[in-house]
Amino acid sequence: METVLAATSGRRVRALLRNPGLAEPHGPSGPDVRFHRGARPRLRRRSKRGQDGQALGRSRGGFSTKIHLKSDFDGLPIAFHLTGGEAGDSPLFKLLLDLGPDVTPRAALADKGYDAKANRAIARARGIASAIPFKSNAKERPAFFPKALYRGRARIEQCFGKLKRFKRVALRCEKTECGFAAIVALAFSFILILILILILILILILILILILILIKIRPHNLIWRSGTPQTDYT
Description:
Layout: H1 2-5, E1 57-59, E2 62-71, E3 77-84, H2 93-98, E4 107-109, H3 117-125, E5 129-131, H4 147-150, H5 154-163, H6 167-170, H7 177-217, E6 222-225, E7 228-231
Parallel strand pairs: 4-5
Antiparallel strand pairs: 1-2, 2-3, 6-7
């Protein structure tokens, strides 16, 4: 009965398509003529699009994304993995070893976040020397720790410093994990290209210095005639 009355004079005809139990407003339509007031999921999906599966999470620093990076001893990036800010480092140690090219490293340098007996056992089983510092509350701490080797971990921190210079990486301007991973990969590509350009410039400078040295060493007191050097005593 309410559905029939909704089509009478003074009410909108499209109310036939709505829930007949709801009250219909009188007057002209406003700028928002949607049937449902509020956000709805996109077609062919039962749930709304959210942050699930987009490498976003809350940690002490707030709503953030964590970049797990794998690099060589020179600090050049090899591979990376994205997780939410609340994700731990230690469970991803095996994953980072498997990322990148199929090359077994001789040593694995990591911070205290990767301190675990299981991680050291995984590295030992693969023939990798692990240089992971122990936490202050760790039990059975060994007396020896390779401090000289662990100093090389500063290079990956320098690589992160270069990465944070890119605003879209530092602020996580991308909404999806795929988009943010593409931006991070592009930033790493720029870092590698810049390092390659600097190496080429250094090689060119060394070549110019070598040419200048060879020109300076050439004796000026020799007179070349018919391809045979003759000494000028005048």
